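2024-03-11 09:14:02 INFO worker-7 job=invfold-0412 stage=load source=structure_tokens
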């Protein structure tokens, strides 16, 4: 087989962009064979736009049809676990949009299903393909910053207007989306945080709900995390600040990385700071240092690169850039942050069974409260999105 027959479940904003890319022949190793959307108006539109491609109302039927070697799940978040598990149980390869799900307890089940089959399970963490993050990872893995000390990420350029939040009934609701900025926009950054700097062992967070918008979920969050080795991380995000900032700083005992405005600045210390601290006889000296600046704009869209990476993983048995287990790590930080904010305590990672159960229970209570307030159902896609291509807003915004 040199090309995967691909079905897409959920053909809204991003699902349609994936489908245009594949149908337009842009994705090596993928051929579009089937589409599914629960919205009738959207199915009508797809019939005329993609003649010859089978259109389904039910994603399970698409998966079981035998038409697809792989499916892409691009529905609202709560449907990801069901379709991913159904695909894996039917030996169909599956790539899900981020986040893997809303509850870590569900994402563990998705990964357990993946462990029982040869079908592959990947996640659309497209920002991993940005060459600057790749370079930063290479420097860290080669020991270029030494023992990690601190990560600070201010990513406040996820600005969204009220009109964005009003564009679909599932958006920014506990029932439809399972959270706000931490579950919709920031998963990319939280994934990159854990990819570059590893998983923390303790999380304390402050999530502020409806601070800048008429929404019931958080649009502003600050996470403070600690690591086993004494390192720490501070992560600040919001959808309510303009112009906003995107600045990631990672320091270790041998150097520092700063990523901002499409540049990676790497400062290498001539003497490791821990050694210099106890050997230097000057009270106010700093270690000798040398700076290198990297700037390599992304040439192809990151979504297209992840689609091709996934196809190559299935067709050639290669490791994936972002696989299902990354979904557990990314979401563990988010679930811990919510749990910390809701309970006012520090939460340990990996999440204990008790903490996962408490998170699930408190989220259900939020959903129940929301249903009482405004009858939100969480059903997605009432406002039919039109045709879409990949847009800048979905790439790294420096
Ligand atoms: N990777 C990225 O850059 C990126 C960008 C945007 C969105 N996303 C993610 O993609 C997913 C979809 O977001 P969107 O903005 O495209 O949403 P959207 O509302 O535009 O599209 C969702 C589509 O799913 C359909 N749908 C709802 N329930 C369904 C079901 N049970 N079965 C089949 N179809 C169903 C809806 O009718 C709608 O057409 C989310 O997980 C979101 O976080 C990722």
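2024-03-11 09:14:09 INFO worker-7 stage=emit residues=398
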């Amino acid at each position: 087989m040199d090309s995967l027959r691909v079905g897409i479940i959920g053909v809204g904003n991003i699902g349609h962009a994936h489908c245009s890319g594949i149908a337009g022949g842009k994705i090596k190793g993928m051929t579009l064979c089937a589409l599914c959307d629960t919205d009738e108006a959207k199915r009508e539109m797809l019939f005329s736009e993609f003649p010859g491609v089978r259109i389904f109302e039910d994603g399970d039927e698409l998966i079981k049809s035998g038409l697809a070697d792989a499916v892409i799940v691009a529905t609202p978040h709560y449907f990801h676990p069901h379709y991913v598990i159904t695909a894996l149980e039917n030996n169909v390869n599956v790539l899900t949009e981020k986040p893997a799900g809303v509850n870590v307890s569900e994402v563990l089940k998705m990964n357990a299903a993946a462990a029982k089959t040869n079908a592959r399970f990947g996640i659309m963490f497209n920002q991993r393909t940005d060459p600057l993050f790749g370079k930063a990872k290479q420097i860290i893995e080669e020991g270029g910053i030494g023992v990690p000390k601190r990560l600070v990420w201010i990513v406040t350029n996820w600005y969204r207007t009220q009109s964005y939040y009003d564009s679909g009934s599932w958006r920014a609701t506990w029932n439809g989306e399972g959270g706000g900025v931490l579950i919709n926009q920031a998963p990319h950054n939280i994934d990159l945080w854990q990819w570059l700097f590893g998983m923390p062992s303790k999380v304390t967070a402050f999530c502020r709900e409806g601070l800048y918008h008429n929404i019931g979920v958080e649009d502003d969050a600050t996470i403070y995390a600690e690591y086993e080795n004494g390192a720490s991380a501070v992560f600040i995000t919001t959808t309510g600040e303009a112009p906003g900032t995107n600045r990631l700083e990672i320091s270790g005992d041998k150097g520092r990385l700063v990523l901002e405005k499409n540049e990676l600045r790497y400062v290498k210390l001539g003497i490791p700071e821990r050694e210099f601290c106890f050997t230097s006889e000057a009270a106010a000296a700093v270690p000798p240092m040398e700076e290198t600046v990297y700037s390599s704009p992304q040439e192809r869209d990151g979504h297209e690169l992840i689609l091709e990476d996934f196809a190559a993983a299935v067709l050639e048995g290669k490791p994936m850039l972002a696989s299902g287990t990354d979904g557990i790590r990314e979401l563990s930080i988010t679930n811990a942050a919510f749990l910390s904010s809701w309970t006012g305590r520090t939460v340990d990672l990996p999440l204990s069974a008790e903490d996962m159960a408490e998170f699930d229970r408190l989220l259900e209570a939020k959903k129940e409260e929301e249903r009482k307030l405004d009858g939100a159902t969480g059903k997605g896609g009432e406002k039919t999105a039109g045709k879409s291509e990949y847009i800048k807003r979905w790439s790294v915004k420096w």
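2024-03-11 09:14:09 INFO worker-7 stage=report msg="The longest helix spans residues 353-374."
2024-03-11 09:14:10 INFO worker-7 job finished
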